[in-house]
Prior knowledge:
The chain is of the alpha+beta class. The protein has helices spanning 2-9, 84-96, 120-135, 142-157, 164-171, 210-231, 243-248, 255-280, 283-299, 306-315, 344-359; strands at 14-25, 35-51, 56-61, 68-71, 104-110, 176-181, 187-191, 196-206, 321-327, 332-340, 364-368, 375-378. Strands 1, 2, 3, 4, 5, 6, 7 and 12 form an 8-stranded mixed beta sheet that branches. A hairpin with a 6-residue loop joins strand 3 and strand 4. Helix 3 (120-135) crosses helix 4 and helix 8 (255-280) runs antiparallel to helix 9. It is globular, with a radius of gyration of 21 Å. Alpha-D-galactopyranose binds next to helix 5. The site of alpha-D-galactopyranose has 10 residues, from helix 5.
Amino acid sequence: MAQAFEQEFSASPEIFSAPGRVNLIGEHTDYNEGFVLPSAIGFYVGVAVSPRPDRKLLLRSTGFSDKFEFALDRLPSRKLFAWCDYVVGVAVMLGHAGISLKGANFLVHGQVPIGAGLSSSAALEVASALALLSVASQDLPLTDVAKLCQRAENEFVGARVGIMDQFVSCFGQEGHAILLDCRSLESKLVPIPKNVKFVICNTKVKHELSSGEYNRRREECEEAVRVLSKTYPGVYSLRDVSSDQLSSLKSTMDPVLYKRSKHVISENERVVRAAECFCAGDLDDVGRLMRESHCSLRDDYEVSCRELDLMVEAAEGLPGYYGGRMTGGGFGGCTVNLVDERHAKTFADHLAERYQQATKISPEIMICSAANGAALESKKTTA
Ligand code: GLA
């Protein structure tokens, strides 16, 4: 990256990196102020950066041929529907936060598969935030970086995502998942036993409806809270609702809102239990909870799709398999499987074969472990 950067900008860069993530359990709970249990994975987005004497932001990518140039004092207020949106969105939010930015040259190099639900966008946002802050000689606590990147995605890119992806991209730890309380942002590291791998299987489909349906699920949850809080005044989000309270209103509630709430409430319970099981090294129980999570996402939250279901079913019975589920927002993207390290490679081969036979699509399978979060990879070298 440093070489490519020097060729492009005739300057030597600092390089920041931030990883993608896989969510082990706790889907569609973050924006309901609930719990999630993601890990960072060893695919990173790198941002090489050097200061400029003027107030311009020059953006290049090794993966895309389009080049962008912006004046820092006249950053666009709307997205351009291009990869630069994630960088510009972060710059705009830093500006709103009162950070005075300086001119910079940027070169982005992404390893996180795009559109697979592994949070390449959060990784780009976080690495960009660190790069922009460094050039401006400014510092922000990492939790604020995560929040600011989420705001860039919400307000600039227009996706009403929760905090999970940006948080884990900032705070990931090798060998650990992060149990995050998305209301308080308190987090706890949960050790992942060394003899287990995350086998991540990309269905290679992404159904068009995903972003519209995502926002619709959020609205349904908000509507459910309005309904539930009429009977239970202390309810501000689905996080506050117990399964008994929900059951007590089953006969009067809209059936769709009931199902959405049921998923979120039961998923929060599963996340907390899964974290305990990981700590106890009880992988069979984690696997069972992952399967339950998938069924709940498929039947009650209705964000799975045929390909994800087939990929999950295809894993059943394979040696070394503890459990698996769809991961991320849904309607395509990846499944995550917890697999004994000794069987991971054959598991991946057999799963690929089964999925291909069922769908005629050749999947992409990645064998991963929990990795570290965002970092400064290399300091500027002075000749
Ligand atoms: C996407 C969003 C996250 C989260 C998941 C669903 O990945 O970016 O904030 O809501 O969907 O769990």
